[in-house]
Amino acid sequence: MEGGPRLFAVITEEAHKVGGGPPIFYVESSEEKERVAAYISRISGGVIHDVGNGTYIVVIHQ
Amino acid sequence: MGAAAPIVRVPVGVGFLDHLTAILIGTLMGSLGRLLLLHVDYRQYPSYPQAYVVHLAFGFVAAFLGSIAVPAIVAKEFAAASFLALAVTQFREVRKIERETLERLEKTELVPRGTAYIEGIAKTFEARNYLAMLVGLVASLGVQIGRHWEDPALAAAVGILFGLATIVMLKRSITRAVVGDIAHVRPAEISFDGPLLVVEGVQLMNIGLPESRQTYLEQGLAVAIIPKSIDAKATLGNIGQRQAIVHDAATLCGVRMDVADKEFMPLARRDLVSGVVALVIVPAEKNMEALITAVRQTPVLEDSVRKPSEAEPSKIMA
């Protein structure tokens, strides 16, 4: 619980909908989005969440 | 010289032997009590054989200290009885050591125990040393009482009897409740509302990858833990209690996950209105009966027990 969840990366098909702090990965298709998200979550140990607007976020739950 | 020998021998010799019997019986019974309270089960804690030796040694020392108290008082050595106070300080240290060890090990657990479970375990170990001490004390008291019949064998037998009775009584009184006592556990369906994993109408987690959702639907198991009373509802609301249930379920049924697969971390979340706890897990082997049994036999943590029904506000609400 300590520290709370930390947003590690954003993977999106919709470039205009996302901005800000964490690294953002722009992708062309949903397949690419899934692949990139899976790779990043493997590396970071984070969990992939779907925020519904063509965007995945990888969050590290401490 | 010949006449002096019996005068020296009788009071010192007999008294010492009697005390020795009391201490010996007390120490033996106390150590036996500690041994009976130690058992290796699915928790694998204390670990076997090293931690076993540690706890038996502590139990032996506790029993010895306990059994010294009565002979010390009989011999009018009141200062020696203050040993017990020293023992209390030592055993508090036991609790601290247990807590620190488990907290350090927490990082190596796939599904953590949680601080409440750790605190419960640490407290149990401290308490059991006191129990060993108490058994030692009562057994040596038994020997002291048995001396009235002036038969050493009878005195020892009374001591053993006292010790055994204390062990049986304590063993019965310190048995903790389990989740099965305070709640019904039944199978539940896993479904998805978009990316949201839903069990019993409770949203547990947002699962991004369709592949992972498929894994949950195919391999996952879920149960609903329905509290039997308002007290059980409050107890199951405790985060530590739920983490303990999750930890035990994962230990007993296995988990299909590794360090990087946090999306398959077993979870228990509660329904805000009914207090029903939904638990989801992707077990190593899909067996609902085993999961239900695992959840049922999770101990109710002493520190998570709540009894709102005993207080005024809940009587007004009812």
Q: How would you describe the oligomerization state of the chains in this entry?
A: heterodimer
- Quote the beta fraction of chain A: 25-35%
Structural class of chain A: alpha+beta
Arithmetic mean pLDDT of chain B: 88
Q: Biggest sheet of chain A: strands side by side, in what order? A: 2-1-4-3
Count of individual beta strands of chain A: 4
- Give the uncertain stretches of chain B in residue-range form: 1-13
Would you tell me the structural class of the helices and strands of chain B? Answer: alpha+beta
Portion of residues in beta strands of chain B equals: 5-15%
How far apart are the termini of chain B?
86 Å
Poorly predicted runs of 5 or more residues of chain A: none
| Total domains of chain B | 2
Number of helical elements of chain A: 1
- Measure the end-to-end span of chain A: 6 Å
Radius of gyration from the alpha-carbon trace of chain B, in angstroms: 26 Å
Word description of this protein:
The complex is a heterodimer of chains A (62) and B (318). Chain A has 62 residues and is of the alpha+beta class. Chain A has one helix at residues 30-44; strands at residues 6-12, 24-26, 47-50, 55-60. Chain A has a domain at 1-15 and 40-56 and 58-62. In chain A, 24% of the residues lie in helices and 32% in strands. The model of chain A has no long low-confidence stretch (mean pLDDT 91). Chain B contains twelve helices and seven strands. The longest helix of chain B has 34 residues, at 4-37. In chain B, the strands form two sheets. Chain B has a four-stranded antiparallel beta sheet. A three-stranded antiparallel beta sheet of chain B has the order 2-3-4, covered by helices on one side. Chain B folds into two domains: 4-173, no CATH class; 179-309. In chain B, strand 6 (267-270) and strand 7 form a beta hairpin. Chain B is elongated. By secondary structure, chain B is an alpha+beta fold. Chains A and B meet through helix 1 and strand 3 of A and helix 8 of B.
